[in-house]
Write a structure and sequence with these properties.
heterodimer; A: 311 residues; alpha+beta; five-stranded mixed β-sheet; five-stranded antiparallel β-sheet; 10 helices; 18 strands; 31% helix; B: 705 residues; 13-stranded mixed β-sheet; seven-stranded mixed β-sheet; 18 helices; 36 strands
């Protein structure tokens, strides 16, 4: 519910500052002490679902993403409605009778059924149950929104290689005077260290948040955390991504979450955020559902990972 | 050699430019002339004491008749001729205001109507007790013309009119309305608005506003001594005039704080961090960075450059100077053009817990009842503070000097909760006295446009009711009574319909407008951010993080991504999958292509687990298409066969392009067996019959062999 309200608010505003997003989320979550209720997590999840783009620069801004319909693989002929979700497009109510919006009006005219799947961690997932691809195209045309057949596959084709992502990271060291941690690629965890010495990925928490710096033979770079993590995993030839071909699930360690675009490619296979599993104490594993093997392969390949098969 | 005095026309132009200019556009403008202002103007021109110079100029202009009617006549003539240029009466009106401002600055008497002419007459070189000057009663029309010049001729671009009168004594209220509060005090009114949680455009009745102002006004509140004295002494008409003035200021308030010079002002605060369980305390200056505040160009009062760095969007990085004893006692100001950052010194400072800019304790302008505070106080008031806290606070109340970098001569008390009303706080402890009076404020909510909230995202109404009071809150005509305390009322849980809602509480009327949203599928700004990729062998991102996307379609060789929308030329986009076909579950399917041998048997799969997890049925399943599918042959569980075209129109059979003998035979048998299963009357019947003919021919050839 709160995620639905946040998405509606961001969609109605179109674009804005981080302060606006954060204030809205803080108001929606009230006095929540749950670390999972942080505004940056809500923003990250909405970007993975294709609803939002966030520019995590010095001055953080966001913009709602264009609404779009895309067919999903292995979904019983369902198309996912992603991107901005104004109340004009989708107006949820407390019950089916009071739920409305252009989506339902047009779907009724075209005899397409809309499935609303609630989520505890993200906004309601909206699927249009189609009998053919033509139904999905007609629905998108009538709503005047974009349509892409299986956008996850297209996204997977766009994923940049790790070295391309790193080429964009600016040179820079870790700020001094803060408590420092190093990413241990063997244990796949962060461990406290005295300072950034030797090669590896280091981080410290400053007044503005965590800063990550990658120290290698050619110098040091300020990096996006996820990119840095997979780069040091590559150095150590350590593969952490796994795939369950029976369940079509991509398994990702929580501490080595996928970079934003890779996560979006995985999430848009189902329109659902990954389920959190706890295989061992203090260990979180993210299970991305309904990821076809070729997309899982493309994600792993872009991150220079060998996909481990599990069952 | 300098001149002794300015002419009337010179004074007229200078005063009009000083009090009515673009800086006041859309805001109330006052001709609040006083001796300081006049001296400042005159000193630049070597005119001697400003008041004397202005007085001389007006007397010269008045001429020997001693009457002020001439000014009224000139005003009418100026108006009749088209009212171009500066009104000719500003200097005279300024002199009239000067008389009032000299009354206001009298620490004993203050503004009293019967003393006005005794102040004005000497300025006009008339006997002090001569009573009302001749022609003074005609100046009402001149004041009205001034209002008209501001409101109509200049459309408020030089300021909004503020001259007002009251029934008795009618003529002197015009000038007094301009000097009730000096500019320095008016510029501090936003501090008052913010302190009592009024927002821009709050609709509040003047008596309630006056009560809040009186409650707020106390030494240390930021008003000058003269301003505090004026408000303290005000009764009757003076109080009503002041309330009107404050209401006008509130109505035009843009939500910003200002300093005495009218610059937009940000606050420098103290941030305390408790370490080792409070045994060590560190102290730093931090400054909020209100929207629009620059990072560059900051200077100290003495003009020295002062480096500031932004820390995110809302704060500057901690100021690069320690809170030393002198700064703590005297305060300081930094300026950059029309912006100022100031630390206001105080001998006893309450701190409240905060998570921004970092977790710690942030100095507060005023303590809040019952909430936990840390109090930093100068040692010179330690004894008085202990006594004060014993009377009004709960907690350990121990004043001590912890390790860390607390400046010399300052002490700290931890865990202080002010738990009783402080009726008469000494000036040095004014910030420790919480304001307990009935007030409401709106907080949070999902504001999608100015003053407009999304339905379901209505803000919370916080109601503070002081001890011994009660508060009736009326929302759209329904009233509920609240008892003393602080109560949040979640408007979003009231199921308010879209539209305007009127909330009345404690004399304040607030309007909350709720909207079901805008009638668009995508709001302005949607899709403005995203990623750009340059297509080479692979795709090379142009930026590390999402950034602003330029308008228009992407140029050749570029692909853009915003959310799930991928844009690019057909040659630039990654090759997507061949769309599979959707088949109904629970049936067995044979799929046929146009070439004999293109046949695919598809069993119905189990429902995917992830759909089961979501409670979704799978009436269809997607089947990859290794060749262009033209027909489906559906075999029901109870027998019966149906043939359906999968493309409209289906392609004719390609008899000469058979793929292998065995597959071609299987293809032919399937078609032949389903010969009569094609839906009658369908547009594709003719083509299906062609397929049947080809199938028969293949079977015939096979039998012949």
């Amino acid at each position: 519910m709160k995620q639905d309200l946040l998405l509606a608010y961001l969609s109605e505003k179109g674009q804005g500052s981080w302060r606006e997003l954060k204030d809205a989320w803080t108001w929606l979550t009230g006095d929540s002490q749950d670390p999972g209720d942080a505004a940056w997590i809500a923003a990250r999840d909405l970007t993975a679902l294709g609803h939002l783009e966030v520019s995590w620069g010095d001055e953080i801004t966001w913009a709602a993403a264009p609404p779009l319909l895309t067919m999903l693989p292995r979904s019983g002929g369902r198309a996912l409605i992603t991107g901005a979700r104004t109340r004009h497009l989708y107006g949820p109510g407390p019950d089916a009778a009071s739920t409305g919006g252009l989506l339902f009006e047009v779907a009724k005219e075209l005899d397409v059924w809309i499935d609303e799947c609630a989520s505890t961690v993200g906004p309601t997932t909206l699927y249009a149950a189609c009998e053919s691809e033509r139904d999905a195209q007609a629905l998108a045309d009538a709503l005047q929104i974009g349509y892409t057949y299986e956008v996850a596959e297209v996204l997977a084709g766009l994923l940049p290689d790790l070295h391309m992502a790193l080429a964009l990271s600016p040179a820079g060291e870790l700020p001094r005077g803060f408590d420092t941690e190093r990413f241990d690629p063997d244990e796949v965890e962060w461990v406290p260290v005295e300072g950034a010495e030797g090669y590896g990925l280091f981080r410290c928490r400053t007044y503005q948040g965590h800063v990550h710096a990658l120290y290698g033979p050619t110098g040091s770079q300020r990096v996006v955390r996820e990119v840095g993590v997979y780069e040091v995993l590559r150095w150590e030839q350590r593969s952490v991504l796994a795939y369950d071909p029976d369940r079509y699930e991509l398994l990702v360690p929580g501490v080595a979450a996928l970079p934003a675009l890779h996560a979006r490619a995985a999430v848009l296979c189902s329109g659902r955020l990954p389920a959190r599993r706890f295989p061992r104490a203090r260990e979180v594993e993210l299970h991305h559902p309904n990821v076809p093997p070729d997309i899982a392969e493309q994600i792993a390949s872009a991150l220079q990972q060998d996909l481990l098969l599990v069952s | 050699m300098g001149r002794m005095s300015g002419s009337y026309d010179e004074w007229n132009e200078l005063l009009a430019a000083a009090y009515y200019n673009e800086d006041h556009a859309g805001r109330p403008a006052y001709l609040s002339v006083d001796d300081d202002d006049l001296n400042a103007i005159a000193s630049c021109r070597d005119w001697g004491p400003g008041a004397d110079s202005l007085s001389e100029a007006v007397i010269d202009k008045r001429g020997r008749h001693r009457s002020l009617y001439r000014f009224a006549r000139e005003a009418r003539e100026w108006r009749r001729c088209g009212a171009s240029g500066t009104p000719p009466y500003v200097a005279l009106l300024a002199l009239c205001v000067l008389a009032g401002s000299r009354m206001a600055s009298d620490p004993e008497a203050g503004i009293v109507g019967h003393a006005y002419y005794a102040r004005l007459n000497p300025l006009l070189r008339l006997p002090t007790h001569a009573g009302q000057p001749q022609g003074f009663d005609a100046l009402g029309t001149v004041w009205e013309d001034l209002n008209r010049w501001l409101a109509e001729d200049n459309q408020g671009l030089l300021g909004l009119p503020t001259a007002r009168t009251r029934p008795h004594p009618r003529h002197i209220w015009w000038p007094i309305s301009q000097c009730l509060l000096r500019a320095a005090d008016r510029h501090r009114l936003p501090d008052f608005f913010r302190s009592v949680r009024l927002e821009p455009r709050t609709d509040i009745v003047e008596p309630q506003l006056w009560e809040l102002l009186c409650n707020w006004t106390r030494p240390g509140c930021g008003l000058t001594q003269q301003g505090i004295g004026t408000i303290d002494r005000a009764t009757g008409d003076i109080a009503a005039q002041l309330a009107s003035l404050v209401k006008r200021e509130l109505d035009s308030w843009d939500g910003q704080l200002r300093d005495a010079q009218g610059r937009r002002r940000g606050e420098v605060l103290l941030l305390a961090e408790k370490l080792a369980g409070g045994r060590r305390v560190t102290l730093r200056f931090v400054a909020r960075r209100p929207q629009g505040f620059p990072v560059d160009g900051w200077r100290t009062v003495s003009g020295e450059p002062f480096g500031l760095e932004a820390a995110g969007t809302d704060w500057f990085r901690p100021l690069p100077m320690a809170p030393g004893p002198r700064l703590m006692r005297e305060g300081f100001t930094l300026t950059s053009g029309k912006f100022a950052l100031s630390y206001e010194a105080s001998l006893a400072i309450p701190f409240r817990a905060t998570f921004e800019p970092v977790s710690g304790w942030l100095s507060a302008r005023q303590s809040t009842a019952v909430e936990e505070h840390l109090v930093l106080a100068h040692a010179s008031v330690a004894d008085e503070l202990r006594a004060f806290l014993r009377r009004h606070a709960q907690g350990h109340l121990e004043l001590r000097r912890p390790a860390g970098d607390i400046p010399e001569g300052w002490l700290i008390a931890l865990s202080v909760r002010i738990s009783s009303a402080v009726l008469n706080a000494p000036p040095e402890f004014a910030r420790l006295a919480p304001r307990l009076n009935t007030a409401t404020r709106l907080e949070g909510g999902l504001q999608i446009a100015n003053g407009q909230y999304l339905v379901g995202g209505e803000p919370d109404l916080w109601i503070t009711v002081g001890a011994g009071e009660s508060c009736d809150v009326t929302i759209d005509g329904r009233t509920e009574r609240f008892r003393p305390g602080v109560v949040p009322l979640r408007l979003s849980e009231l199921g308010l319909p879209a539209g305007r809602h009127v909330i009345v509480a404690g004399g304040i009327t607030r309007n909350v407008t709720t909207s079901p949203g805008f009638p668009v599928v995508a709001a302005m700004g949607t899709g403005r951010l995203g990623h750009e990729f340059a297509r080479h062998r692979g795709y090379r991102p142009r930026t590390e993080i999402a950034g602003a996307l330029p308008p228009g379609p992407p140029p050749s060789g570029t692909v853009r991504l915003s959310g799930a929308k991928v844009e690019g030329g057909p040659d630039d986009l990654p090759i997507g999958p061949l769309p599979p076909i959707l088949l109904r579950t629970g049936l067995s399917w044979l799929l046929l292509g146009a070439r004999p041998g293109e046949i695919l048997e598809v069993p119905s799969p189990d429902r995917p687990e992830w759909l089961s997890d979501l409670g979704l049925e799978a009436q269809f399943f997607d089947c990859p298409a290794p060749f262009p599918i033209e027909w489906s042959v559906q075999q029901g569980q109870l027998g019966g066969t149906k043939v359906r075209a999968m493309r409209e129109p289906p392609s004719p059979p390609l008899r000469d392009q058979a793929i292998g003998a065995a597959p071609a035979l299987a293809w032919a048998r399937t078609v032949a067996d389903a010969e009569g299963a094609h839906e009658e009357g369908a547009a594709s019947t003719e083509t299906w019959n062609e397929y049947v003919d080809v199938a028969r021919a293949i079977l015939f050839e096979y039998e012949m062999e």
